[in-house]
Specification:
With about 110 residues, the chain is mainly α. Helix content is about 65%, strand content about 5%. It has 2 domains: about 55 residues; about 30 residues. The chain contains 3 helices and 2 strands; from the N terminus they run E-E-H-H-H.
Amino acid sequence: MTKHDSNSGNGVVAKHRHRHEGPQKHVVAFIFSIVLTLIAFAAVAAGGVNTAFTVLILLVMAVLQVIVQLGYWMHLKDKGHLIPIIFMAGGFFVAGTCIVAALYWMWR
């Protein structure tokens, strides 16, 4: 019996298969990443746009890009990835705290 087989005690062996997600979701995620990048480039290339609005667009595109990259390319959307998510959230918290503290220290 392989590690994916299970025996229910009655002699019947049931095979558990991993659900294989095809390339469709990866293609959609790739296209979405490209679109986010193009929006960011267009926001910067449009010279007549308010600088604060451009920065806001870039930040929103960056956050969406991070979500897509972590979710689809690093497979953090799958089951069994809670510990890496917790450690990454802790790292984001520490980094954010350091950035806020540094800005407060410089502008005080």
